[in-house]
Amino acid sequence: MLPFKKFLYKFFRTGKDKNFLLVVEHIEILIAKFLSILMLLVTLFAIFELCVFLFKSLFFHSFITFFETPQSKLFEAFGLFLNVLIALEILENITVYLRDHDVPYELVLATSLIAVSRKIIIFDLEKKDAMDLIALGVAVLSLSVSYFILSIKNKHK
Q1: Inside any domain, residue 10
Q2: 89 touches 96 (CB < 8 A)
Q3: N or C: which end of the chain has fewer CB within 10 A?
Q4: pTM of the model
């Protein structure tokens, strides 16, 4: 029998779910490692983007206008900084998954809270209406309650 046919026979043989699950687990790990590498690249790009923005804003524009413009570049800098933090949190989620082979739900909720907080920090009241802000508030409240419930549940384990 050809090696590939032999592999397929062993892989799909009834009663041998252990082999199938082992292959699925290896593929999951490979995908998580690939995502980690991509997330590292995204994080490095976000850091580069933040550095370029700060360099241009501080050295090619007046230092005072950085803080006093109506659409302050300071909030844009906060948004870029939080992008880096969110990327690091996502990378941490993947790392914990690779290490423990478990989804870190508290960490996922914390990452989501950071992402929604970023939206609130860079929220432009002139371009958005009150319903958008209310929706973000509901999202923060829901994520916070979920995080609280999950942390209580994990304390009682």
Answers
A1: no
A2: no
A3: C
A4: 0.73
